[in-house]
Specification:
Number of helices: 1
Helix content: under 10%
Strand content: 35-45%
Oligomer: single chain
Structural class: mainly beta
Mean pLDDT: 78
Number of strands: 42
Distance between the termini: 78 Å
Radius of gyration: 33 Å
Largest sheet: 7 strands, antiparallel
Shape: elongated
Low-confidence stretches: 1-18, 328-352, 376-388
């Protein structure tokens, strides 16, 4: 075995084989400040658990572990870091020499939950000459160890707001970025309350404090959903260390505080879940209530989606349509508070979904549809294991409070969509429930194109200079609803450009240059000039025919790269006019046609046939 001990800072060395320091009795002696390399490859499991120190309650498993015996040279506070590339590496401190050490109180363990981060732990109030035993290993069985470094350094000063008595003052609508790096665990319990029943495990630990003062009366949102999942927040009513804990305890999402009066104060205790060093983001802003948390006030879903939803502040409706099949495993929970203060299981209630919002949707055509919650731009509440709570989605035929259940399923990250069969023109009620989440609802037709409502007129169109003609037959509804129409132009002359026109009707047959304009006035133009005038880039459909005669989109307004996705907005003045469900519009392509040259190259134009689209 080769090792070095230094009093002059940092030294690195390799211990080989790892088994030489794989037992508490053979811990490698080190002292002072420095960096010491180790190799946990094949070290095995020492099963070291102190007899009286109490480390057994903090993740007993420590595979492929190695031990150091460290002696303090000066009195002070120290930071011990396991710079180990393996995920879920944990580090433990024991006061005392070797196998007789006791778990270092309150600061005895930390592990890295995410690959690439380091595990670190503090030791406060260390006196010169004190001996600590250090154990470094894998938190979970089967996670192999490897090379790493133990770094011992003097601990930086604690944050100024690392105490309930020194909370940073904030007020009104505010955004706070915080970190608990270098913070201690204060054990704040909310005055006469008990804010942290799981203090030693779930957090918040390594906590910092903010004192918020309301500048107006009303309801407010405490929003932490842009934070890392490792955070925990406690709220306490009042000022400083005399504040009394209030619900929620250890929350990590969004919460509504009701009935706040101007001048009221709330103490925010921010820390890590499961003793993690982390950082977070808090926003406090006035709450605007949910308007569609009952089947009688369901939100009408217009267009093709996706549609944003938010069930913050929604109550528990107990809507079951007389059929518990729409609730599955999510029923049987009763909450004394609509804002999740106390919830219990009750087998006698009629299986309600909690915190539910309602939406109505009309199927554009017959087919099988997939209902899901998008995983991008979705903010989920995190449970105590650091995993995002999902949601339950239920579908009812009828679209109102008299609807009948079709079925339900879990939704959210990693969950498959809920699949159901819909009848064109029929309304459906969609219920989204469970936890305070926001995100996007997606409804996609499972197979085939929903082309009901599409037809062709002004056909056949006149030929261009190469002898072919431009047609719009390849157009389709890629997704149901307004905004789901995609128009394709094929058969055009290569390297000529064009753009789409739209009008309410198409009965004209006006000869213009080399083609026939079939749209009736007033007509709108989807080109770059109109898009710029209205500050709506989605109104630009300008494209160029490729060598195969397919119009390639140059404006970035096509999901497929060719053709054009017709937006809800119309290219008319005054602005603000939109396509509504049930509207029928006529669409035609204008394009440059060189048949007129000479004498003026490129001066001629032509037109496609006309697509008539009735929007669902």
């Amino acid at each position: 075995m080769i090792h070095c001990v230094t009093k002059l800072g940092c030294v690195a060395f390799l211990i080989s084989p790892a088994l030489a320091q794989n037992e508490c009795a053979t811990a490698v002696p080190i002292q002072g400040l420095g960096t010491w390399s180790y190799d946990r490859t094949g070290a095995g499991d020492s099963d070291f658990v102190t007899s009286g120190g109490g480390c057994s309650h903090l993740l007993q498993v420590s595979d492929d572990d190695v031990f150091f015996s460290w002696t303090a040279e000066v009195t002070g506070a120290y930071l011990f870091t396991a710079a180990d590339p393996a995920e879920d590496t944990q580090i433990r401190l024991f006061s005392g020499l070797g196998c007789s050490g006791f778990c270092y109180p309150f600061q005895s363990l930390h592990f890295n939950d995410v690959l690439g981060t380091w595990a670190a732990v503090d030791a406060f109030f260390v006196d010169a000459g004190d001996v600590l035993t250090i154990q470094i290993g894998s938190k979970d069985e089967g996670v192999a160890g490897g090379l790493g470094d133990l770094i011992v350094e003097m601990r930086p000063p604690m944050p100024a707001n690392n105490s309930c008595s020194t909370a940073i003052q904030v007020s009104g609508t505010v955004a706070i970025d915080w970190s608990n790096l270098w913070a201690s665990s204060t054990s704040f319990q909310g005055g006469a309350g008990f804010c942290n029943p799981s203090y030693l495990w779930d957090g918040p630990t390594w906590d910092v404090f903010y004192q918020w003062t309301a500048t107006e009366s009303g309801d407010f949102v405490i929003d932490t959903t842009r934070s890392l999942e490792a955070i925990k927040i406690n709220l306490a009513e009042g000022a400083g260390c005399t504040a009394t804990c209030m619900t929620p305890l250890n929350f990590s999402a969004r919460h509504v505080i009701e009935g706040v009066e101007a001048g009221d104060q709330i103490l925010l205790q921010c820390g890590g879940r499961r003793r993690q060093i982390t950082n977070g983001h808090i926003e406090i802003y006035p709450y605007v209530g949910t308007t569609h948390d009952d089947c009688s006030s369901a939100e009408q879903l217009a267009g093709s989606g996706p549609w944003a939803f938010d069930n913050l502040g929604a109550g528990t409706s107990y809507f079951d349509a007389g059929d518990s099949n729409c609730h599955g495993s999510h029923g049987g929970v009763y909450c004394y508070s609509e804002l999740w203060e106390i919830c219990v299981y009750d087998p006698d209630i009629s299986n309600p979904e909690e915190f539910d919002t309602f939406h109505t949707w009309t199927a554009p055509c017959d087919g099988t549809y997939d209902l899901s919650i998008g995983t991008d731009q979705v903010q989920f509440n995190y449970n105590d294991s650091g995993m995002p709570w999902g949601a339950a989605v239920s579908v009812y035929a009828g679209g109102d409070c008299l609807s009948t259940c079709i079925g339900s399923a879990d939704a959210g990250p990693g969950e498959p969509p809920f699949t159901f069969t819909a009848v064109g023109g029929q309304s459906y009620l969609i219920q989204v429930a469970n936890e305070f989440i926001q995100g996007e609802l997606h409804l996609d037709r499972q197979a085939g194109l929903c082309n009901d409502g599409l037809s062709i007129t002004c056909d056949p169109p006149l030929a261009h200079y190469l002898g072919g003609s431009v047609t719009l037959e390849a157009s389709s509804f890629l997704s149901p609803g307004v905004g789901g129409l995609h128009v394709e132009a094929t058969g055009g002359p290569p390297n000529e450009f064009g753009f789409f026109l739209i009008a309410p009707t198409a009965t004209s047959s006006l000869s213009v240059f080399n083609g026939t304009l079939c749209l009736d006035a007033p007509l709108g133009r989807y080109n770059n000039k109109i898009a710029g005038n209205q500050s709506l880039p989605q109104l630009n459909s300008v494209g160029l025919f490729d060598g195969s005669g397919v119009l390639q989109n140059l404006a970035g307004t096509s999901t497929s790269g060719s053709g054009f996705d017709v937006p809800v907005e119309l290219p008319y003045s005054p602005t603000g006019q939109v396509i509504a469900p049930g509207d029928t519009w006529a669409i035609q392509l204008w394009y440059r046609d060189r048949i007129g040259m000479p004498p003026t190259p490129g001066s001629s134009a032509n037109f496609s046939n006309v697509l008539l689209a009735t929007f669902p």
